[in-house]
Amino acid sequence: MFSDAMKLNTIRAVFVLLLLSFVSFAQADGTPVIIIPGVTGSELVNEKTGELVWLKAARSKVDDIRLPISANPAKNRDDLVPGDILRSLKLGIFPRIDIYGGLIDSFKNQSGYREEYWDSPSERGGEKSIYVFPYDWRLDNVENARKLIEKVEELKKKLKRPDLKFNIIGHSMGGLIARYAAMYGAADLPAAGRKATPTWAGAKHFNKIVLLGTPNEGSAYAISSLTNGYAVGGIQFNLPFVQNISEYDVFTIPSSYQLLPAPGTVQIVDENFEPVDIDIYDAKTWSKYDWNPIDRKKFASEFSVAERRAAPAFFAAMLSRAKRFHEALAVKSEPKGVQFELVGSECKETLDTIVVYRDAKSNEYKTLFKPSGFTKVGGTKVSSDELKPIMYGAGDGTVTQRSFEMRTQTRLSGATLKAATPKVVCEDHQKLGANEDLQIYFNKLFSSR
After folding, report:
1. Which residues of 47-58 are buried (b: 16+ CB within 10 A; e: fewer)?
2. Helix, coil or strand: residue 378
3. Residue 30: which of 159, 124, 152 has the closest Cα?
4. Model-level pTM?
5. Which of 66, 85, 228, 252 sits between 20 and 30 A of 305, alpha carbons compared?
6. Quick one: three-class SS letters along 411-443?
7. Is residue 147 situated within a structural domain?
8. What's the domain range around 364?
9. Calpha distance 392→236 (Å, rounded)
């Protein structure tokens, strides 16, 4: 026979267990969400004048998105700071384009989330909350990963929730930032020549990380961006009413190098469609194939004398650091306490293979970043129709399915990132966040344990 006291204690114990179960479920069902945009997906504002510099139609009279360059890349800074993420975009007479605003609204409308702010969260800022992470997308991805960790740690202190975890949707380059933050926390890359060892120091802050259209193996378009400009990470902004981005702008942007194809994944063929072994992280390669902006006559008029002197060392340092960044992400390591989800597209023709050939007239190297007919040295003509199946692969128009699923790295060195079966849709790279089917998918994904 149980005494009344024993019965009361039993009831209390059951009540406590039910309460703990409810709290656990509430955390799983209402985990706050962080949205990290891709390259060019955050506003850039002059910290001193308040002028919006990116994104707007015309170049600023005072500022430029170009960073200063010197022998010490860590000190290459200007007065621009991140503003808000780009929620939508209006280009002249064209209809407004949804970028990330619809994704934010989907969590509000479908799951009852509300937007909170890092510096002034409400008392409920740790429950069913959305935080956007605008960042200076020109800077090194490791630096922005460190800033993400700092933001999260500061927020947890303000909320007095040391064990709080977050879900992340990292679009495009934002996914690379999230990956690094989870794997290495706020730590910098190891010194050249040393192998990176993931500590998963940042994983304690995160529950699920969605890599949305993330160029996990980089993008061939990044070579084109550094060579020809107008496309940072493949996102074309050479449009009416929008400022162009030249190769000289891209040259100064550290993150643009970290979007290059990861070591061992680049596909380059010659005029006979035979593979060519090219080290894209060697500055000499860029001069050999006429990719290096430093070798252009216009380079002298674009930069100061001091910058021109520093340019070769800066260029080599950026290539080296980009290579080490990819190698750090590609280390085979079991995720600790965090779940990754790969989401992307496979229905759009996407540059996957670059063609280099000798020009029939000049005998100089030419590079094709899009299927365009050419004549071989011997006189044989190659049509654009012949080139399309050689150069294009499945993807979202910017990032190949091969890249976001890490197929080459998995084949070469084993699975580099344990994740659930990839979620594949049909959508353009820039519109992935605005895709309504994916918005429903994200809300369901984050509402489950």
Report:
1. eeeebebbbeee
2. coil
3. 124
4. 0.91
5. 228
6. HHHCCCCCECCCEEECCCHHHCCCCHHHHHHHH
7. yes
8. 32-447
9. 17
Under DSSP, is residue 128 helix (H, G, I), strand (E, B) or coil? coil
For 232, the token pair is: 């940072």
Q: Which residues pair with 418 in a beta bridge?
A: none
443 occurs within a structural domain: yes
R_g over Cα of the chain? 24
Retrieve residue 54's tokens. 């990116």
Contact 255, 276 (CB under 8 A): no
Produce one character per residue of 119-142: b if its CB has 16 or more CB atoms within 10 Å, e if not.
eebeeebbbbbbbbbbbbbbbbbb
Cα distances (angstroms) measured from residue 91 to each of 53, 57, 267: 16, 8, 35
- In the chain (449 residues long), the average pLDDT of successive 10-residue segments reads 48 41 46 96 94 77 83 90 93 83 98 97 96 97 98 98 97 98 96 91 97 97 90 43 76 97 97 96 97 96 96 97 96 90 97 94 91 90 96 97 93 72 94 97 90
Q: Do residues 215 and 233 lie in contact, with contact meaning Cβ atoms separated by under 8 Å?
A: yes
Rounded CA-CA distance 407/412 in Å is: 9
β-pairing verdict for 268-269 and 374-375? unpaired
16 inside domain: no
β-pairing verdict for 166-171 and 392-395 = unpaired
| Length of the chain counted residue by residue | 449
Q: Which residue has the tokens 């005029």?
A: 271
Q: What is the count of structural domains for the chain?
A: 1
255 in any annotated domain: yes
